[in-house]
Amino acid sequence: MKDVTIVVGTVGQSIMRSEDNGQTWARIGPRRGFAYEASVRCIAMHPKQHETLFAGTERGLYRSDDRGANWKYLDSALNPHYVWAIGIDPVNPNNMFVGTGTPTPAMLFASNDAGKTWEKRPVEVANECEAVGTPRFTGIAVDPLEPNHIWAGLEVDGARHSSDGGKTWSIVDVTGRRDIHNVVVTAGPPKTVFIMANREIYASTDNGESWEARDMQRCLPWEYPRKENYLRGIAVDPANPQRIFLSFGDFTPGTSGAIAQTQDFGKSWKLLPLPVEPNSTMWTFGVNPDDSKTIFAASRYGYLYRSDDAGSSWTKLRRELSEIAAVCWLLN
After folding, report:
1. Residue 224 confidence class, pLDDT cut points 50, 70, 90
2. Mean pLDDT of all residues in 311-317
């Protein structure tokens, strides 16, 4: 087992951080530059400088250059906004994108100087949506092969696509689905864009010209609890772009959850064994190209699981946290 530092974004307890594989934890607060009891909805790792992290909160964006130990508030146009999603261009990481939302208006901002300054982009978003009221961005994915293509999802206002590096955006028609929970692009081959709705995943291999449903209710036979699968988190194996991980559950926050893996772009899925049944829907993943075999997964209500063999087996960490929204990890 590799010795790692774990950085967890929680809703209401700021950043929780462990330097010893989760044996002991420290809550990052004002002495480390972070707001006390902040709500952290997303954490993004710099694709080339992994010690640099960005965290989205209810009052804009924070940056750490020492693996999440200390943070600096990025005073910018994002200050009044609740940041829900961060996307970083893997080819030119100076280009960043941020999506905001509930309870502040859902907007999309772009930066070309690594997050120092931000400019609002012209993205049409509904002021109010069914079930959630004010919508929120739930994912932003920059194409790893053609970074001018950027994808974003909203809960509950559909998906958006830019083909010019984020200057202009258009609505993505995915068979009328509006409740979008995540987006991801895998280099493949074939390069595939995945847009995840609450009950289904749609895949495109032609930059969104056409979409194919993956029939997730059939592909994920889940014996307990026997309800419709509620899809939430998705991650691509950094070393094998054909392997994709999915986290799901019975609802939100849900009473149980599970993890699945595909190696054929979502046409079939294999459930992965968890040693302890999750206490809620499985919510998010933490992966790192420095060691693709190590993966972290979190339930919405604070369970953390770790795999050191690319998902074949998992262990549950002893410490349970508050509501988890984001997980990342770094080699010590």
Report:
1. low
2. 97
Taking the model in full, what pTM does it have?
A: 0.96
Residue with tokens 């081959």, as numbered in its chain = 189
- The share of the chain scoring above pLDDT 70, in percent, equals 98
User: Which helix (H) or strand (E) element contains residue 219?
Assistant: helix 216-219
Q: How far apart are CA 142 and CA 119, in angstroms?
A: 18
* Token pair listed for 98: 């941020």
Strands 324-331 and 315-316, sheet pairing = unpaired
For 230-266, how does the pLDDT look when each residue is reduced to its tens digit (9 = 90+)?
999 999 999 999 999 999 999 899 999 999 999 999 9
DSSP string, 272-290: EP-SS--SS-EEEEE--TT
Q: In whole angstroms, what is the distance from residue 292 CA to residue 87 CA? A: 20
Residues contacting residue 226 through CB under 8 Å, at least 6 positions apart: none
Q: CB of 157 within 8 A of CB of 129?
A: yes
The residues pairing with 246 across neighbouring beta strands, listed in sequence order, are: 234, 260
Inter-residue contact 290 to 330 (CB < 8 Å)? yes
